[in-house]
Amino acid sequence: MTVHQLIYYSRNKTPGDDRTQLINLREILSASQRNNGRDGITGYLIFDKSWFVQILEGDRAKVSETYTRIARDTRHGMSTVMNTRDVAERSFPEWTMGGAMRSIDVQEVYLSHGFGGPIDPTKVKWEKLFALALDLNEFERTRRSAHKQAS
Ligand SMILES: Cc1cc2nc3c(=O)[nH]c(=O)nc-3n(C[C@H](O)[C@H](O)[C@H](O)COP(=O)(O)O)c2cc1C
């Protein structure tokens, strides 16, 4: 059984300050977790204020159905598929949809991938964004388990 992976970027169309953006992102993630859990989809969402980059993985038909629904969402535009492929196993098995807004806490991860300033996904190879998502996910996981051990 292979897993289908799709990576796309899109431009955020929701206006507002950081707080509004965070509320917006939480709404997106909660709908995603509900639907993706039902559809066997996992993945990761990078949000860097003006841009979204999302990886969806799962059954090919479900991934494509989910992407079609997402692409129609008016909260973003210019949705562009960067790559699709079949892989042997999931890269984000623990998340029905993981993701975080870019913040100072994770800046070191962005820096280690050469993203000092805002990401412009129209100028970056999908492989670089995929690698960033994997590291952001790993960073968050390590931080969570450190919290658990401390409490
Ligand atoms: C950047 C972005 C990413 C999204 N990702 C997902 C997703 O992974 N899964 C999902 O079901 N909906 C996602 N959505 C939301 C969908 O566009 C849509 O609003 C939602 O699936 C509708 O769900 P509902 O019919 O349960 O209300 C995303 C929306 C945006 C703007």
List keywords for this structure.
alpha+beta; Alpha-Beta Plaits; 5-stranded mixed beta sheet; 4 helices; binds flavin mononucleotide
Structure write-up:
This protein has 151 residues and is an alpha+beta fold. It has a single domain, classed as 2-Layer Sandwich (Alpha-Beta Plaits). Helices cover 43% and strands 27% of the residues. It contains 4 helices and 5 strands. Strands 4-1-3-2-5 form a 5-stranded mixed beta sheet, with helices on both faces. The longest helix has 25 residues, at 126-150. Residues 10, 28, 31-32, 35-36, 45, 52, 54, 66, 69-70, 73, 75-76, 97 line the site of flavin mononucleotide (FMN).
* Portion in beta strands: 25-35%
The set of bound ligands, ions and cofactors reads: flavin mononucleotide
The global form is globular
Stretches with pLDDT under 50, minimum 5 residues: none
In total, how many domains does the architecture comprise?
A: 1
* Whole-number mean pLDDT: 93
The largest sheet is: 5 strands, mixed
- The name CATH uses for the topology is Alpha-Beta Plaits
Give the N-to-C terminal Cα separation: 40 Å
Structural class: alpha+beta
CATH architecture: 2-Layer Sandwich
Order of helices and strands: EHEEHEEHH
Strand ordering within the main sheet: 4-1-3-2-5
Total DSSP helices = 4
Instruction: Give the helix proportion (percent range).
Output: 40-55%
Supply Rg: 15 Å
